[in-house]
Amino acid sequence: xxxxxxxxxxxxxxxxxxxxxxxxxxxxxxxxxxxxxxxxxxxxxxxxxxxxxxxxxxxxxxxxxxxxxxxxxxxxxxxxxxxxxxxxxxxxxxxxxxxxxxxxxxxxxxxxxxxxxxxxxxxxxxxxxxxxxxxxxxxxxxxxxxxxxxxxxxxxxxxxxxxxxxxxxxxxxxxxxxxxxxxxxxxxxxxxxxxxxxxxxxxxxxxxxxxxxxxxxxxxxxxxxxxxxxxxxxxxxxxxxxxxxxxxxxxxxxxxxxxxxxxxxxxxxxxxxxxxxxxxxxxxxxxxxxxxxxxxxxxxxxxxxxxxxxxxxxx
Length: 315
Description:
The protein has helices at 22-26, 36-48, 71-77, 93-101, 115-122, 126-142, 165-177, 194-206, 225-234, 262-271, 280-294, 301-314; strands at 17-20, 53-54, 57-58, 88-89, 106-112, 146-152, 182-187, 214-218, 239-242. The chain is of the alpha/beta class. The protein has one domain: TIM Barrel (Alpha-Beta Barrel), CATH 3.20.20. Strand 4 (88-89), helix 4 and strand 5 (106-112) form a beta-alpha-beta unit. Helix 7 packs across helix 8 and helix 8 (194-206) runs parallel beside helix 9. It starts with 16 loop residues before the first strand and ends with a helix. Residues 16-284 form the Pyruvate carboxyltransferase domain.
């Protein structure tokens, strides 16, 4: 079966936007440098499969993330498809300068819900990181760019343990108050559970931040990513981050395994009758193609399940 049976459920959105993070968050932790031409073809294949938001790369210093040292060259090589957004991650004003020079229209900043991870990831504390982001967001908005914020460690931190919900909401509000249009709530080490997701989103709503300003970003470390996503959808969230083939992790948190696989997400959403605009067979074929180039099987359950049918179709 290349598609699930569609059985809609009440209380869910009619359509979900998938924020594809494979080319950036997915590849950033790969031990071997992925060739530039593979990255460019991956982005093109994802757009052809119907994904309309594809986070393409990051302007983090190459010393910290060597995999993305070719950011400028990649952005010059990618042929922009009509109606597709190609956001990039920027850590500071220097990164913003690089993005502006290449005509980028969408950027993302990346904050933390905990002090320890902020210092390990950004080499500065929470207050200092917000001070660093403020001019980035202001200048980006002045130049007409869309700005998204990531908030890491929203459900648990490997150094600090459980993260209080009020702390997550407070730090998320600080990023939104800078002028970010959207806040992506990250379960960086994959310890969240559905009830926790529901409680966190309710707390944001009580603080005046509705689901229309939020996205969710789940890792599947404990197999909870799809269940957590369903809880978020029931709370009104309609933007979900995912990575083609389930690749990815976090170079600063060793317990962070792969992202929610885009194919697994599309299978679930399709079965619920929720539109995404994504062609599942095309997407799964892309992840099989990428897995061959990475030299290992795809972590995605759906890609593995469809692999034989897709291979037979090619033959």
